[in-house]
Specification:
The complex is a heterotrimer. Chain B is mostly helical. Chain B has twelve helices and two strands; from the N terminus they run H-H-H-H-E-H-E-H-H-H-H-H-H-H. The chains are: A mainly alpha, B mainly alpha, C alpha/beta.
Chain lengths: 354, 305, 358
């Protein structure tokens, strides 16, 4: 007797959309058990983690603020993952974007002008794009797997940032602490509401959601990406250039990650410093999968993850629950989503045979 | 030069955990599976190993517990990636994230606790050879184990039927299946071995390397191990050379500083990653097929009847 | 603008029951702490947490304390604001990197009092405080100068910031005052708390001939490494004797408790004002662990040095101080360097080899 997987013929739309929710519920149930094992009330934990961030205006702003870079990066990753291209170096592309955008800000330090911020955004996108082009080029030209090259480049980008903020870009008035000077006002997103921190970066994320959705629903390019991912041979027969698509999905993904980097730099951080990335580029991978590789789904799941992250901080303050619990939970959530997707694709059958 | 044997001994200690973790992942990848969760299994191994050593007051039990914990986590990976044929890249990343959190939870009560060292073993005669003796033959028991493991893995992979089957599964799972090879079972064993090695490497870090548990103490060594496997391009011996090269870089970086050499330390830290990419490039340009990676690496396998 | 009428304090939910019972009593003063590392690092954050517990012990029933640990400096605004908006009236942010975030949040909450450790920017409701750890380093410098046989001492530094540079200088001046031939080698971990890296750095220094190790990073890893290689070392931030009982010489202990209690009392009595405090052995903010594993005459020397610094007779930076480039440093504090000069120290003194990393 053994357990085997059998391909399902058709999966209902409802079922595919319910999967992430069921996965979330399963992960929450397991998480609740662990909270109880740690001697805390799961009910209070659910309130602090999930309800408060959504019902309190201040926390809601913080959720949107956190969801902005996550959804920008995740939408880019949707392009790659749908085409079956495994760009897992978004963190590095984000950092290079922040470095390029931040470089512009430092160039105009102490100056003001409406053009500074747009210039930073462009520089950031260009930087992220160029950095993502490296693994794309290696894959297209030499057939080198993009998985490891893009990952290795994350660490190179981290060390580059480290070098810059400790060396040439270090704030001369910063007592040798590894950080750049704070950007001038023209190089910063101004908050929408006094006392809050939400800024126009969120609008960029919304724009990205709309554009990405249009590309996938209305354009041949979107169709070509899907075809390449699902049936590479068919894509070839249909005359889609595998190389061009590979390059383009990496370019889009890199540019969006770079944009996210600038949005963070010019938004809440206001300077460059080590540890700037906070692993957002990796978290975005979870976001992309949780959102079932659709742009709108990615935006929604970015909200879910942001709620969890904000909730995690409250939980630390209110319930003294360690942050590691949240990290564990995010890994668990991704596993549940993957398992759910697999069970949609296959049916588990028990066969009696040798 | 009285400094040389000391430096070599430091490199040995830096290279051993890299070598052990990479050796495990090497076997996994030979079987055609890409497990990006090495960092996660390693840190859980470090946490569980340390916790077990403190609770039982035995470093040996700690090392075993670390390996076992890594294996348990690998089992989760296998359940998803082999059992349910999920995407291996995403599953591996999930494993790393989960592992980092889990290790923090397990390790929390043990932060700040001391552990006595594991005494080194001096091999008779060999340890008296000048320079080489004190550098390599007065080492901790796990160092000797790592060398034996390299030999064992090289032998099993290249000289035994089991190794042949494993490589066949990795090269082309469809034809291996057609020939009646139990693809999924072999992969399961490979993944479990990989977890055992990663967990052991983690326990080495917390029980021998620093003798101290601290969150995030693997500090990216799991990723370096993955880079090493790529770097080695399928050859166990090159894996060993790479581990010592990368370990040497870690040590060189600090010596450069203490010796006041004006190289940015970040450049030296980035070298393992850059060298891995360059190694891939050289392999590709020199026209050898692929990069020495197994043919069906990373592809989920679902047997048809 | 959002209306705040529907706002619910997150804290009220978790502690609602506990609070209901005490509602009739006088409202408790809520005090928050932001830590850069885990509470269990046995170094920097651990000692701040000892100070936090001292507050609870000193004012039973009148205060309530909360901490958030391992808060990344790059993303700390939210955690600080979370404390401010959940009714914490006194907030200690305990790492240099929290300087700008603390000031930003403080502007939004003028009625909350902030205390930022080791920073140099203040505001009406932001005070700063730091400790003269370099006083302790002068003492251990003298011990190291006496104990070394190879005349090479290894120093594991975290970041090349003034606090650490001043520590290296004080240590070297102390060592040189008893041993003119002494040399020190510095290795940077570029991290406050990274046991493997700190351990590697210590190992490197020992490989290069150092037979006494000292550290300005937070974990006991360098100390452990020293013990394994059978050389002497010192504890940092807390009494680290248990990590290397036979190789530790003493520890420099950060004791924040008296300061935290004093500032809490000021708030309770309504006398809190923004200020800058920079003191050390004399006020008990810096303490020395037991002097062990050394001959009696070295112990005596250490005790005498400690007493001389405590009474103010001696200072690590007694003029004239000559910088590495041979120029004499201007003496702004009478017979010694001024607090400002030490707080912003950015040069090695004469005799230290190598350069401060750029």
């Amino acid at each position: 007797m053994r357990i085997a997987l059998e391909q399902r013929r058709a999966v209902s739309r409802l079922r595919t959309w319910l999967t992430p929710l069921v996965a979330l519920a399963v992960a929450l149930a397991i998480g609740g058990v662990i909270v109880a094992l740690l001697g805390k009330s799961p009910v209070v934990a659910f309130k602090v983690y999930l309800r408060d961030p959504l019902t309190d205006p201040w926390a809601l702003q913080e959720v949107l603020l956190k969801a902005t870079p996550l959804s920008l990066i995740a939408i880019g990753l949707v392009f790659c993952f749908r085409a079956n291209r495994w760009n897992i170096g978004a963190e590095g592309q984000m950092l290079v974007g922040a470095i390029c955008g931040g470089g512009v800000a430092l160039l105009f330090l102490g100056q003001s002008g409406f053009y500074i911020l747009p210039l930073m955004l462009l520089a950031g996108m260009a930087g992220g794009l160029a950095y993502a082009a490296i693994p794309a080029f290696l894959r297209v030209r030499f057939g080198i797997s993009e998985i490891l090259t893009s990952l290795m480049l994350v660490y190179v980008a981290e060390l580059l940032l480290d070098y810059l903020v400790r060396g040439p870009w270090r704030d001369p008035k910063g007592f040798n602490f590894p950080q750049t000077p704070s950007f001038s006002d023209s190089a910063l997103f101004q908050p929408f509401f006094e006392g809050g921190r939400l800024h126009a970066g969120a609008l960029l994320a919304i724009l990205a959601i709309i554009l990405a959705t249009l590309v996938f629903r209305r354009t041949l390019f979107g169709f070509a990406i899907n075809t390449l991912g699902e049936a590479p041979r068919a894509a070839n027969f249909a005359g889609f250039s595998e190389r061009r698509i590979t390059f383009l999905v990496f370019a889009i993904s890199g540019a969006l990650a770079g944009l996210a980097g600038v949005v963070e730099a010019a938004g809440q951080v206001g300077q460059l410093r080590p540890g700037f990335g906070q692993g957002l580029g990796f978290t975005a991978i979870i976001v992309a999968f949780l959102g079932r590789l659709s742009p709108i789904g990615a935006a929604l799941s970015a909200m879910v993850i942001a709620v969890l992250l904000i909730g995690a901080e409250s939980a630390q303050v209110v319930m003294k629950l360690p942050f590691d619990l949240t990290r564990f939970f995010m890994g668990l959530l991704l596993m549940c989503v993957l398992a759910g997707e697999a069970l949609n694709r296959y049916r588990l059958v028990i066969r009696k045979e040798g | 030069m009285e400094m040389l044997p000391l430096v070599l001994a430091s490199i040995t200690v830096a290279a051993t955990p890299l070598l052990i973790a990479a050796l495990g992942e090497h076997v996994v990848e030979r079987a055609g599976v890409l497990n990006l969760g090495v960092e996660g299994m390693m840190i859980v191994g470090a946490a569980c190993g340390f916790a077990a050593a403190v609770l039982t007051d035995s470093s040996v039990l700690g090392l075993l517990a670390g390996g076992f914990a890594g294996m348990l986590l690998a089992l989760v990976f296998a359940g998803l990636a082999i059992g349910l044929a999920t995407n291996q890249v995403a599953t591996g990343l999930a494993l790393t994230i989960l592992g980092l959190g889990l290790a923090g939870l397990i390790g929390a009560p043990f932060v700040g606790q001391p552990r006595p060292p594991i005494p080194p073993i001096a091999l008779p005669i060999l340890s008296d050879i000048p320079i080489i003796g004190p550098a390599f033959f007065r080492a901790d028991p796990i160092f000797y184990l790592s060398v034996m493991l390299v030999i064992a893995v090289a032998f099993v992979l290249n000289r035994t039927r089991a190794g042949l089957l494993l490589r066949a599964v990795g090269e082309n799972h469809a034809s291996a299946h057609a020939l009646g090879v139990p693809v999924r079972r072999i992969r399961l064993y490979a993944i479990l071995f990989g977890g055992l090695m990663a967990g052991l490497a983690g326990a080495y870090l917390s029980l021998i390397y620093t003798r101290f548990w601290s969150p995030g103490m693997t500090a990216g060594r799991g990723w370096i191990a993955l880079a090493l496997v790529v770097f080695a391009a399928g050859h166990v011996w090159r894996l060993m050379a790479g581990a010592y090269l990368f370990g040497g870089l870690t040590v060189a970086q600090l010596h450069a500083q203490a010796g006041a050499i004006g190289l940015p330390s970040q450049l030296l830290s980035a070298l393992p990653y850059i060298m891995t990419i360059l190694a891939l490039l050289v392999l590709a340009v020199s026209g050898r097929r692929g990069s020495g990676a197994a043919g069906s690496l990373g592809q989920p396998f679902v047997p048809e009847r | 603008m959002f209306r705040m009428t529907t706002r619910r304090l997150a804290l009220a939910m978790g502690l609602g029951l506990a609070m209901a019972g005490a509602a009739t009593a006088q409202e408790k003063l809520k005090i928050g702490f932001i830590y850069v590392g885990p509470v269990g690092d046995f170094g920097w954050s651990y000692q701040h947490d000892v100070g936090r517990k001292a507050i609870e012990a000193a004012f039973p029933g009148r205060v309530e304390t909360t901490f958030v640990e391992s808060v990344p400096e790059a993303d700390s605004d939210r955690a600080i604001e979370q404390l401010a908006r959940t009714g914490h009236k006194l907030i200690f942010t305990t790492s240099f990197g929290y300087m700008e975030p603390t000031l930003r949040v403080a502007k939004k909450y003028p009625n909350v009092m902030f205390e930022h450790a080791t920073g140099f920017k203040r505001d009406k409701n932001v005070a700063t405080y730091s400790a003269k750890f370099h006083e302790g380093r002068y003492i251990i410098g003298r011990i190291a100068g006496k104990m070394t046989k190879s005349n090479t001492i290894g120093y594991v530094g975290a970041f090349p910031i003034p606090e650490v540079i001043a520590g290296i200088n004080a240590f070297y001046l102390g060592a040189k005052s008893v041993n003119p031939d002494v040399k020190i080698k510095v290795a940077w971990a570029f991290d406050w708390f990274n046991p493997p890296k700190e351990g590697d750095a210590a190992k490197t220094l020992i490989d290069q001939g150092a037979d006494v190790i000292t550290q300005h990073t937070d974990s006991p890893a360098p100390l452990q490494q020293a013990a394994q290689r059978n050389v002497f070392a010192f504890g940092q931030a807390s009494d680290m004797t248990k990590f290397a009982p036979n190789h530790i010489l003493t520890s420099i202990i950060d004791d924040w408790a008296p300061y935290y209690v004093e500032r809490t009392r000021a708030v309770l009595e309504g006398k809190w004002q923004s200020q800058d405090v920079f003191d050390g052995l004399a006020k008990g903010k810096v303490k020395m662990g037991p002097y062990v594993n050394m001959p009696p005459e070295v112990k005596k020397l250490a005790e005498e040095t400690e007493e001389a610094i405590r009474s103010g007779k001696l200072d690590p930076f007694m003029c004239p101080i000559i910088a590495q480039d041979g120029k004499t440093v201007e003496c702004k504090g009478g017979d010694r360097l001024s607090n400002e000069q030490v707080f912003g120290m950015n040069f090695y003194v004469q005799g230290i080899e190598g350069t401060i990393p750029k």
